[in-house]
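ugh ok fine here u go
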Amino acid sequence: MKIAVLGATGQTGQYLVSQALQQGHTVTAIVRNPGKLTVQHENLKVVEADIFSADSLKTHYNGHDVIMSCLGFPTSFFSPVTGYTLSMKATISAMREARVNRIITMTAWYTEPNSGQQSPFLIRWLLLPMIRSVLNNMLEMEQFLQETEDINWTVVRPPGLRNQPASAQEFLTHEGYYVPNSSDHPVNTAVGRGDVARFMISLLSSNAWVKKGVSMTTKE
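structure:
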């Protein structure tokens, strides 16, 4: 497949690019700073673009089968986070012009404000309030996609991210805002970035989660 990757220079994005190339896909990495991408490959093209501009993106989307986004934006205590919604609106507009209708993007567990009720004490009372501005904008982006009828989207929601390569562990999935165990508590609290990339790439050959949000992690 021909894949355009947003957020390719981030930690998860670099795993995604490497794994996609290893599996024989052709990748266009759309970046702000090409020097940050350490991967080199004959099937990799690195281009600069403004992720908030549909005009800037559409040229690079032409001829691609799917857009994959690992974009992340930092939390803010003094102003709302807007990067997720603004970049997604630009991407969807560019996809329409380039006639690409498949996107796989990532957010996180607990984007819905009440979904963290069963999470561990420190996550519920310390971490989630600290990153709520990010989670709120992720949720707005998810809601925007839910209203986008002409695009086949999938939102992948991982828990906390560890900077670890892909494992061979079985995936656990749930159509909700976290992956519960039998007593409705989260099964774990973190997953390797390499496994998030592995899961996202696995969706290229599956229609199981089209037009859905899926929480994922790995079996421990």
